[in-house]
Design goal:
The complex is a heterodimer of chains A (about 300) and B (about 180). With about 300 residues, chain A is of the alpha/beta class. Chain A is about 45% helix and about 10% strand. In chain A, helix 1 crosses helix 13, helix 3 crosses helix 4 and helix 10 crosses helix 12. Chain A is globular, with a radius of gyration of 19 Å. Chain B has about 180 residues and is an all-alpha fold. Chain B has 2 domains: about 90 residues, Orthogonal Bundle (Fumarate Reductase Iron-sulfur Protein, Chain B, domain 2); about 70 residues, no CATH class. Helices cover about 50% and strands about 0% of the residues of chain B. Chain B is built from 10 helices and no strands. In chain B, helix 7 packs antiparallel against helix 8. Chain B starts with 13 loop residues before the first helix and ends with a helix. Classes of the chains: A alpha/beta (about 300), B mainly alpha (about 180).
Chain lengths: ~300, ~180
């Protein structure tokens, strides 16, 4: 199994632990990640609203880079997944693809269409599959109560409906089961973290994330797992503010999906960047220490 | 929020302008059913932002009223409205079209400021230099308001890089962006 790896900007900057953990987990599973060191930002909606054609061209450039290597694209961010998958869909229209290719030609690039954009969650559930995934679990999550926090963009990305019901997603819960854990369901698991208004209206983002966090906590979640580093940023970095807005203590650690998988695979927490969180992940690793080691 | 009494339709063809801007193409199909507003997570928190009313105001020709409204910058791009609209109007994408028009006219405010900071970062680096985008979006004053948060982030190793790390191919990125839009 081999993919062109698109970590996106945040997994290479403030959420380096996501990149670290993803590399650890894919290595464990024998998945080869081929870097695209010159791939650009997906635009995250900002470039799209300022220069929509430019955003289309840059994302087409990324798809072309994956295509040159004959690989599908692997993302680990909800927003990257959404905007790249939207571009992919747009470029399946011959007319749009020809127009965009006229721009790309000026950089000596070309995109033929057909490259798939897959988020890690889909790759784990479909390409790796339940049997292989379960076979790699060395430290089952056991009684750890894991809540999913899906984030909007993965669910809204074209193509997600092929493996997930966007209105009632089950992928992360399925994954937690396969990792030998105990998924907690709560209504806020599909709520919006507010990241995309964070710099403009922090008050809104904090209150939005507070809603999800409070619901997770009251449903008994000891930890959240998210497929999006942008959700992670709001839920983790701004959690103190969310707690203040909610008027109650929260202390809910927020793991990246790769970190949760890595923990169940028995990978050393340090190599998963678990120390790089604002809300301490200590209680989670401690709870896992008490679980039985299944195999070496 | 009721439309203020003094607002007058200043551009009866505004909806056509929006319809020909990327994201706004399906605005004519809206039946004002309010599914978008009911799906919107901002609805409960922000009385000034009602996505159905934004669409209605566009179609009433209230160009200045809509484009000058800071509320169009409160959308969190969750696209719940896009997923649920029975007429496939893509209201969240209509917001994108409105922001595009507001930016083209050089309108100011925290929203445009953030978008400019972000886009500049992509042009200059090929990807996001988070520290700089944050600083340029909220200013030093905004950063200081965070108190000890940046320090706490640095302590946890969660501080974004201070130095920018542009892609080797950043000239190509700039050329492609300017080629379709013209230099900014």
């Amino acid at each position: 199994m081999k993919y062109a790896y698109f970590p996106g900007c945040v997994a290479l900057d403030s959420c380096k632990e996501l990149d670290l953990a993803t590399r650890e987990v894919t290595k464990d599973l024998g998945i080869e990640l081929v870097d695209l060191p010159e791939a650009s930002c997906c635009g995250a909606g900002n470039l799209q609203e300022k220069n929509p054609e430019g955003a289309l061209v840059l994302n087409a450039r990324t798809l072309a880079m994956a295509q040159e290597k004959g690989l599908d694209l692997l993302t680990v961010c909800g927003s990257c997944q959404l905007y790249l998958a939207r571009t992919r869909e747009e470029l399946e229209k011959t007319e749009t693809r020809e127009r965009v290719n006229r721009s790309l030609a000026k950089a000596g690039r070309h995109y033929d269409g057909g490259t798939k954009v897959k988020h890690l969650l889909q790759v784990l559930l479909e390409d790796v599959g339940p049997r292989k995934l379960a076979a790699h679990v060395r430290r089952p999550l056991g009684n750890l109560a894991v809540g999913a926090f899906y984030g909007c963009h993965l669910l809204r990305a074209p193509g997600t409906e092929a493996f997930e019901n966007p209105e009632d997603p089950q992928g992360i819960e399925k994954l937690v089961h396969l990792l030998g854990g105990n998924p907690v369901t709560y209504s806020g698991r599909t709520s919006c973290c507010g990241f995309h208004v964070l710099t403009v209206r922090q008050d809104l983002a904090v209150r939005m994330s507070a809603t999800g966090l409070v619901e997770a906590k009251s449903a008994g979640a000891q930890v959240l797992a998210t497929p999006c580093p942008l959700c992670h940023l709001v839920l983790d970095v701004y959690q103190k503010k969310a707690a203040k807005a909610a008027g109650e203590a929260l202390n809910v650690p927020v793991l990246h999906l790769s970190q949760l998988v890595g923990l169940a695979f028995g990978i050393d927490p340090e190599r998963l960047g678990l120390d790089r969180h604002m809300v301490s992940v200590g209680p989670v690793t401690k709870a896992l220490e008490e679980e039985e080691v299944v195999k070496a | 929020m009721p439309v203020p009494a003094r607002v007058v339709p200043d551009s009866p063809s505004f909806w056509r302008e929006v319809a020909s801007t990327p994201g706004g193409g399906a605005i004519a199909a809206c039946i004002q059913c309010n599914t978008c507003t009911s799906s919107c997570p901002i609805e409960a928190l922000e009385p000034d932002f009602r996505i159905r009313q934004v669409v209605a105001r566009v179609r009433l020709g209230l160009r200045e009223d809509v484009l000058s409204d800071p509320a169009i910058w409160s959308c969190a791009r969750c696209y719940a409205c896009v997923a649920h609209c029975p007429k496939h109007v893509r209201p969240g994408d209509v917001i994108e079209a409105l922001r595009n028009l507001a930016l083209k006219e050089g309108r100011q405010g925290p929203g445009p400021r953030h978008t400019h900071a972000f886009v500049e970062s992509v042009r200059e680096n090929g990807r996001i230099h988070e520290a700089r985008v944050t600083l340029d979006s909220v200013g030093l004053g905004g950063l200081l308001k965070e108190g000890l948060l940046p320090l706490a982030m640095a302590w946890r190793g969660k501080m974004p890089a201070i130095r920018r790390r542009p892609l080797k191919s950043v000239k190509e990125i700039k050329m492609l962006l300017d080629d379709v839009e013209g230099p900014t």
